[in-house]
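I am writing to request your help with a piece of structural work I have in hand. Here, with my thanks, is the record as I have it:
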Amino acid sequence: MALPALSLVLGGAASGKSAYAEGLVRGAPGARVYLATAEGFDEEMRAKIAAHRAARASDGWRTVEAPLDLAGALAGAGAGDIVLLDCATLWLSNVMLAGRDWRAEAAGLIAALAACPARVVVVSNETGQGVVPENKLAREFRAAQGQLNQQLAAEAGFVAVVMAGLPLILKGTAP
């Protein structure tokens, strides 16, 4: 079974979701494009980004850095591409910290995904299974992430959640 136009892979931090999503993309035909949303605000994150970038470069990925403009990056994808967007959680955090209207930005992302001629696999964190955050911004972020994940899942033809490296299929059929 081929990947649908949009797939969503959810999971907690260090759950194996990115590795699973990368496997989905590697198993599909097409030129691999990695939409990276992380920003290197400290040395540890800069080193992590550099290591990931180097690993992808040696594996035939084209990397597009898109910490805020995912709609623009998706518009540049071709029909023969297979896109891994990793991750919607960092993108949403970037949007909120930049003071942008996350609801409008999320609507733009959903529209861009629908218009994208490439198949897209989106990675996103499931943030609603932990304790209630103690501060207002964290609670707002958790609620926004939950709403974004629900919107992505509604549009996706395939949805999986990964825990301890094991995928559980929530919607569709595993390719």
User: Anything to note?
Assistant: Strands lie at 6-11, 31-36, 62-65, 81-86, 119-125, 158-163, 166-171.
